[in-house]
Design a protein that fits this description.
Helices cover about 85% and strands about 0% of the residues. By secondary structure, it is mainly α.
Length: about 150
């Protein structure tokens, strides 16, 4: 694979991770508007902040490598917002299930992408992003179990 193709592939993968984080922020924002989740808003806000920080970290990493970070979550964000909006209407358990599924997907993406990124990006993901994703996943799993 040519160097230009490898760089484009790297930025597509990192951009995809960033879009996933943007979609998570949008989903949590919607969930926090739901009165059904008001009793756990502090924990949900913490998760949203964690995802927002990961958007910033990924954007900075992409820029530092010479790429351009995405400006929106794109189609992934639209899908996530649609699912979370429908779940919020259906109530607390459905909303938490939708958020947990998003956390599952994020965890899976980080683990899969780690196998295909360059060494510098692998270290970045393993050091900063994956531990935060594991934590938000754990929080949502606990919230859903307590429901």
């Amino acid at each position: 694979m040519r160097l230009a193709d490898e760089r484009r592939d790297l930025f597509e993968k990192l951009g995809s991770l960033c879009k996933g984080e943007m979609a998570a922020v949008e989903s949590y924002d919607l969930a926090l508007r739901s009165t059904a989740l008001s009793g756990i808003a502090q924990r949900l806000r913490w998760c949203e902040t964690s995802h927002r920080e990961r958007v910033e970290l990924l954007s900075q990493h992409i820029l530092s490598r010479g790429g351009s970070p995405p400006h929106s979550s794109g189609a992934w964000g639209l899908f996530a917002r649609t699912v979370e909006s429908a779940a919020a209407i259906l109530g607390r358990k459905a909303a938490l299930s939708a958020l947990e599924e998003g956390e599952d997907l994020g965890l899976s993406e980080y683990r899969c992408q780690t196998e295909t990124l360059d060494g510098q990006s692998v270290q970045f993901v393993q050091r900063y992003l994956l531990p935060a994703q594991v934590e938000t996943h754990r929080i949502l799993r606990e919230l859903k179990r307590a429901c």
